């Protein structure tokens, strides 16, 4: 569990989106002698009207099976692989350089060297956690438990509560202390209660995992069993008072502002002011509680659960947080449960990649700064800024043309659209890591100090003006997001990469489908999905719709909820239409909006075929390229329970079935599996 300081929890599940890399990519060839990327990926034994996902990507999937060390594989992973290779080079150079102490290069080099020193790490065993484990073991009172929890928070351990500082949803000019439901060892509440065989097995394996971890901590068999039982019991109670995935998407229901004294009333017997002071948050006088019933239960457990339960629970959460940084026995057991049982991966990813992941969490922007300097040119940045502008213009046309929205709401929607801040590529201002200490003595302790640094970086925002220039993702992240409080889209550089295709050689159809629809149009639409549309142009949770327009919008949302509820994915698991509605709306919106932007290009107007494909066909294939990804059943099952995104297959087949031009481009007819009659097609934006 990594500590994520800058985003609201419901932003963390940001979309995994596909985009293309810059003209700086090595090994490019000229357009004329390069085989057409889209044609090469096709599986023409599948009819596009039956399963466009497999038609578009089938040959690629056959050529790129999921590696044993992965639970999914696809274009994003290929992009990531290139980034890993580049970052590795930067790290090895830094480790070998005689860098100035305190410089970014010294920190990168030492983080890498300590992380790669598996011999030293194995020798240390659990020693890096000794002091923390002893503190937990010595607890004698509720006050001690609270002090331990407070301390663990600052280290990035997922211990019971989840405090962070973020913009007040109803006043985006103010930073506010927020408390979100937290503290579970399984991915979310459903894992503690679902009755299907798959989940039951995971619960059993979770208990086994807990026993093994306690054994590794030195407990005898009987004690380890008892400790595991205590953890499961405590977490199950927390899970019972935790909200479901779809319930977390209601911004009003998850906004409960109160004085800190009000929090005391919610949790009789627990005094928050001194507790928050231990978390370096003593200056907070109000707090926004996401899920009051969770905190009521947490308070009840604090004052009633036996001390030994808390000892077991906190030791578990501590060792869980740092297991990947400890000796091989901890690392392997952690992987066995979280990698293999939960996600289906067969073997650990190479150590060097995992160290880079940890370094990304620790000081991602330091890496990003080096990364974009070498690999993201001003020309590429300009191309995607221009593309963003064109997609925004098309969105404007779409709003104007809506037949269900009144003029007064349209005016407000247009203002909101115009005010969306567009961050493309990388931040103008970088995080300053000068106060972060990194050395070669202990990998785990480097990670601990980095977590503490991130914790303080976040909570120090309380009472300060909002910094709207900040980025919540690094430029080397293959992803993007919309942040409603800033009314902004954030598009990291890495998302503009297509492996094996130089940016300059990519035709507009690919770029508009891959980047314009699946990322830019998608993120813009998030400002107008069922959740984002409740925030106004200034980023405040405030209604700007007429009642009638909101009803008509909701009817359309209900249509897409029904459409996706009908998709069965695995066993009896089907997509959660309500939980994924925002993403599905954004996918559909991105496709139709970027399509109309594409229709203004020369390529579309000329209508010439490339690789035997019309511009319109290439547009849809370009979009499908962004979802060129497959996953193991285990991971798919996890995604259904925890991810607000639909699986890749349905991010293509679902929205395409609603778009008339798709039928036109591929001659889709009644009887084809994806065919939906006109009356059933969803149209929102
Ligand atoms: Zn999204």
TrEMBL record:
Keyword Protease set for record: yes
Highest taxon listed in the record's lineage: Bacteria
Residue span, Peptidase M13 C-terminal domain: 479-681
Entry-linked SUPFAM superfamilies: Metalloproteases ('zincins'), catalytic domain
GO CC terms in record: plasma membrane
Family matches, as Pfam families: Peptidase_M13 (PF01431), Peptidase_M13_N (PF05649)
EC number of the protein: 3.4.24.-
Keywords carried by this UniProt record: Hydrolase, Metal-binding, Metalloprotease, Protease, Signal, Zinc
Name under which the protein is recorded: Putative endopeptidase
InterPro entries: MetalloPept_cat_dom_sf, Peptidase_M13, Peptidase_M13_C, Peptidase_M13_dom_2, Peptidase_M13_N
Cofactor: Zn(2+)
Name of the top EC class for this enzyme: hydrolase
Domain Peptidase M13 N-terminal: 48-427
Species, as recorded: Hymenobacter luteus
CDD domains according to UniProt: M13
Signal peptide: 1-26
């Amino acid at each position: 569990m990594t500590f994520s300081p800058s985003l609201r929890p419901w932003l963390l599940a940001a979309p995994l989106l596909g985009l293309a890399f810059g003209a700086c990519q090595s090994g490019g060839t000229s357009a004329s002698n390069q085989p057409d990327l889209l044609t090469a990926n096709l599986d023409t034994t599948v009819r596009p009207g039956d399963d466009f996902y497999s038609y578009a990507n089938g040959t690629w999937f056959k050529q790129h099976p999921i590696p044993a060390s992965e639970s999914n594989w696809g274009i994003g992973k290929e992009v990531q692989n290139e980034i890993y290779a580049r970052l590795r080079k930067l790290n090895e150079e830094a480790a070998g350089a005689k860098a100035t102490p305190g410089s970014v290069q010294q920190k990168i080099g030492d983080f890498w060297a300590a992380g790669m020193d598996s011999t030293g790490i194995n020798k240390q065993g659990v020693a890096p956690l000794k002091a923390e484990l002893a503190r937990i073991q010595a607890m004698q009172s509720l006050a001690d438990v609270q002090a331990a929890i407070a301390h663990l928070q600052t280290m990035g351990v997922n211990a019971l509560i989840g405090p962070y500082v973020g913009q007040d949803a109803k006043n985006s000019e103010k930073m506010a202390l927020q408390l979100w439901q937290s503290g579970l060892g399984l991915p979310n509440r459903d894992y503690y209660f679902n009755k299907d065989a798959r989940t039951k097995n995971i619960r059993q394996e979770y208990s086994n995992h807990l026993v093994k971890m306690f054994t590794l901590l030195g407990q005898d068999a009987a004690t380890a069993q008892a400790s595991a039982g205590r953890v499961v019991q405590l977490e199950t109670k927390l899970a019972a008072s935790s909200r479901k995935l779809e319930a977390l998407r209601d911004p009003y229901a998850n906004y409960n502002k109160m004085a800190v004294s009000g929090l005391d009333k919610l949790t009789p017997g627990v005094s928050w002011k001194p507790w928050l002071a231990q978390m370096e948050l003593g200056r907070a006088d109000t707090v926004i509680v996401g899920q009051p019933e969770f905190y009521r239960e947490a308070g009840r457990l604090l004052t009633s659960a036996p001390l030994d339960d808390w000892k077991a629970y906190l030791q578990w959460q501590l060792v869980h947080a740092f297991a990947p940084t400890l000796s091989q026995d901890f690392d392997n057991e952690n992987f066995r449960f979280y990698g293999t049982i939960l996600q289906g991966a067969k073997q650990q990813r190479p150590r060097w990649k995992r160290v880079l992941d940890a370094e990304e969490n620790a000081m991602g922007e330091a890496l990003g700064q080096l990364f974009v300097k070498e690999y993201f040119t001003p020309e590429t940045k300009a191309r995607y800024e221009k593309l963003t502008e064109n997609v925004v213009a098309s969105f404007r046309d779409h709003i104007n043309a809506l037949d269900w929205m009144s003029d007064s709401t349209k005016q407000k929607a247009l203002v909101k659209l115009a005010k969306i801040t567009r961050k493309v590529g990388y931040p103008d201002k970088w995080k300053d890591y000068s106060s972060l200490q990194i050395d070669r003595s202990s990998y785990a302790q480097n990670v601990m100090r980095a977590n503490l640094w991130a914790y303080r970086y976040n909570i120090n925002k309380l009472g300060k003006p909002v910094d709207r220039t900040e980025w919540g993702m690094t430029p080397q992240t293959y992803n993007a997001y919309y942040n409603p409080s800033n009314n902004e889209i954030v598009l990291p550089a890495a998302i503009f990469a297509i492996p094996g295709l130089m940016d300059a050689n990519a035709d507009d159809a690919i770029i508009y489908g891959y980047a314009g629809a699946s990322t830019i149009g998608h993120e813009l639409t998030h400002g107008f999905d069922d959740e984002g549309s409740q925030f106004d142009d200034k980023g405040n949770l405030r209604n700007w719709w007429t009642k009638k327009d909101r009803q008509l919008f909701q009817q359309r949302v209900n249509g897409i909820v029904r459409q996706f509820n009908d998709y069965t994915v695995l066993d009896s698991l089907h997509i959660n239409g309500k939980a994924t509605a925002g993403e599905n709306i954004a996918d559909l919106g991105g496709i139709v909006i970027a399509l109309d932007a594409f229709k203004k290009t020369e390529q579309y107007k000329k209508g010439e075929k490339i690789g035997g494909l019309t511009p319109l066909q290439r547009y849809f294939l370009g979009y499908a390229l962004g979802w060129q990804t497959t996953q193991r059943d285990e991971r798919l099952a996890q995604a259904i329970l925890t991810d607000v995104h639909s699986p890749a297959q349905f991010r293509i087949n679902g929205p395409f079935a609603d778009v008339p031009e798709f039928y036109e481009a591929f001659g889709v007819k009644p009887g084809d599996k994806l065919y939906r009659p006109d009356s059933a097609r969803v149209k929102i934006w």
